[in-house]
Design a protein that fits this description.
The protein folds into four domains: 176 residues, Threonyl-tRNA Synthetase, Chain A, domain 2 (2-Layer Sandwich), CATH 3.30.980.10; 219 residues, Bira Bifunctional Protein, Domain 2 (BirA Bifunctional Protein, domain 2); 37 residues, no CATH class; 99 residues, Rossmann fold, CATH 3.40.50.800. Helices cover 36% and strands 26% of the residues. The chain contains 18 helices and 27 strands. Helix 15 links the parallel strand 23 and strand 24. Helix 6 crosses helix 14 and helix 11 crosses helix 12. Bound molecules: zinc ion (2 copies). One zinc ion (ZN) binds next to helix 1.
């Protein structure tokens, strides 16, 4: 890439990767260098060290980077013949491999002082310009991301143009760490992971309550759109996975097993269950669109190193939906799905929804005409919705175009969750058909869609987005009753039963703590509402409502409180 097309930020970050490699080479001369590109959030450099780096080494490396920056060495870059480069890097098998891979007779060489690195360019002018950086962590990686390849050690860092941007970044990271969903999951007794099942989450009663509420809310939306919920097996014969193409493309990520000397696989996706349900009997055009939804538990093998709380697990539940329809029904079905997605995401305050439509890739299956009409249907549906979208040319899957939805959380981070995917491939692979009005057999179009995506991941996103303060309608315990002394226990019991009669999730603090202690406990549990009852409330038959932000309302009747719970539930008030 010519130098002027690389952003200034990428130049700073890539140059800081050189600075890191330079410092490492000075401190640990036996280390073998590989590559150090800029990334979306910073940069990394992959090393093969003589002895592994530890986190304690980062301050020392940072200090040396600062010293080299102080030297204000000019960064130069030139093209040299490959033969010369092979001589320079004769002891570095990684660089030799790269030299062979680079097309042409020359390669780029970057230099600063007595340090050099093979690279295609894109630098700042001198090391003196590299002042606002931070090394973040050390992790394992593989040469050329090949898990059978040479294991390496990656040092990841970030860099910015100004100290202010670095400080803002540090603040964001600090906040993200403070509200890490793994930490909140423990603090709020929602879920856990155990050594006996690495990557398989355990949902505790309170966490499972939240998952159920998310499911129930979605079910209500889907019922209005004439969905039929199904449940299909998590294990199926591997003949099926061969037919669906998963075996060819996905075998390494599937858990395999054997029953009666026959090979089975635990499903990595739910689609075949819906397909077999469709195929269970002949279908008429009168039944279309047929919409099958399933909260389907899938298992996928992931390397233990990439597992990350609920964000990356080995088993998760997709809120899957499969729509079988005629080609002329696609547009309306996609529009309905977009509406369900928008409605659902906005309930959580995700108002900034980004949408991307991915079109025909080079390796596409299916005719040009089928692709054109499918993309037109998706575009028309998007044009009829309120959402703005971008087109990602050639980014669709080989089996059909798709729409991806992104959300931005309260910390300004973006996440991809919902998807709508058209599929020309599976109806053919599984020989799906319906009897058309003409009496002829026709092939239906299949739409795959998910709104939350992975329930587990979405739960994790929500926890961080709300900083643990789940909205009233989603909180596992909505209301906690706190009495000032034991004298009000009977009064509180009566109120508790009334609230339970109205399906409010409520708990009572039975401890002998003073009221300040009870409030503190409820705050740590992030319970949305506390109902405080003392002698005065009991005498007047009233309740004091204390919100988790400390705001209070006095002298409420039980009817007032019930009316408020209804409003908060129905309007998804946060
Ligand atoms: Zn470079
Ligand atoms: Zn599917």
């Amino acid at each position: 890439m010519p130098n002027d097309q690389i952003s200034q930020l990428d130049k700073i970050r890539h140059s800081t990767a050189h600075l890191l490699a330079h410092a490492v080479k000075e401190l640990y001369p036996d280390t073998v260098l590989t590559i150090g590109p800029p990334t979306k959030d910073g940069f990394f450099y992959d090393f093969l060290p003589k002895t592994n780096f530890r986190d304690e080494d980062l301050p020392k490396i940072t200090q040396r980077m600062k010293e080299i920056a102080e030297r204000d060495l000019a960064l130069t870059h030139k093209q040299i013949p490959k033969a010369e480069a092979r001589k320079i890097y004769k002891d570095n098998p990684f660089k030799l491999e790269l030299i062979d891979l680079i097309p042409g007779d020359t390669v780029g060489l970057a230099q600063q002082g007595d340090f050099d690195d093979l690279c295609k360019g894109g630098h700042v002018k001198s090391t003196g310009q590299l002042k606002n950086f931070k090394l973040l962590h050390i992790s394992g990686s593989y040469w050329r991301a090949d898990r059978d390849g040479q294991p390496l050690q990656r040092i990841t860092g970030t860099a910015f143009a100004t100290p202010k941007e670095l400080r803002m970044y540090e603040k964001r990271v600090e906040e993200a760490q403070k509200y890490d969903h793994r930490k909140l999951g423990k603090q709020l007794d929602l879920f856990s992971f155990v050594q006996e099942g690495v990557g398989f989450p355990f949902f505790h009663a309170k966490g499972q309550r939240v998952v159920q509420l998310l499911k129930d809310d979605l079910r209500a939306t889907l019922n209005k759109q004439n969905y039929n919920e199904i449940a299909t097996p998590i294990m199926l014969s591997d003949d099926l996975w061969k037919q669906s193409g998963h075996y060819a493309h996905y075998k390494d990520n599937m858990f395999l097993s054997e029953i009666d000397e026959k090979s089975y696989a635990i499903r990595p996706m739910n689609c075949p269950g819906a397909i077999l349900t469709y195929k269970e009997r002949p279908r008429s055009y009168r039944e279309l669109p047929l919409k099958l939804s399933e909260f389907g538990l899938v298992h996928r093998y992931e390397l233990s190193g990439v597992l990350h709380g609920l964000f990356r697990v080995r088993s998760f539940t997709q809120d899957d939906g499969h729509i079988f329809c005629m080609p002329n029904q696609v547009e309306d079905e996609v529009l309905d799905t977009i509406k369900a997605i928008e409605k659902t995401l906005k309930k959580f305050g995700f108002n900034n929804i980004t949408v991307a439509l991915s079109t025909k890739p080079d390796n596409a299956m299916g005719s040009d005409a089928a692709w054109e009409s499918a993309i037109l249907s998706l575009k028309n549906a998007l044009d009829r919705s309120d959402l703005k979208y971008v087109i990602q040319e050639g980014e669709g899957a080989f089996y059909g175009p798709k729409i991806e939805f992104g959300i931005e959380d309260s910390m300004g981070r973006s996440w991809q969750c919902s998807t709508v995917q058209l599929d020309f491939c599976n109806p053919k692979n599984f020989d799906l058909s319906y009897i058309a009005p003409s009496g002829q057999k026709e092939q239906p179009v299949m739409i795959h869609r998910a709104i939350y995506g992975s329930m587990e991941r979405f739960f994790g996103i929500l926890l961080e987005h709300f900083k643990g303060n789940l909205p009233f309608w989603l909180a596992p315990i909505q209301v906690k009753l706190l009495t000032i002394t034991d004298d009000q226990k009977d009064y509180a019991q009566k109120i508790m039963h009334q609230l339970q009669e109205h399906n409010i999730r409520v708990a009572m603090d039975e401890s002998s703590d003073p009221i300040s202690g009870k409030i503190k406990t409820a705050q740590l549990e992030k319970v949305p509402w506390m109902l405080v009852m003392g002698q005065k409330e009991m005498d007047n038959n009233t309740i004091t409502l204390r919100y988790r932000n400390g705001k209070q309302e006095f002298g409420l009747s039980l009817q007032d409180v019930l009316a408020k719970t209804k409003k908060y539930n129905d309007e998804y008030i946060i």
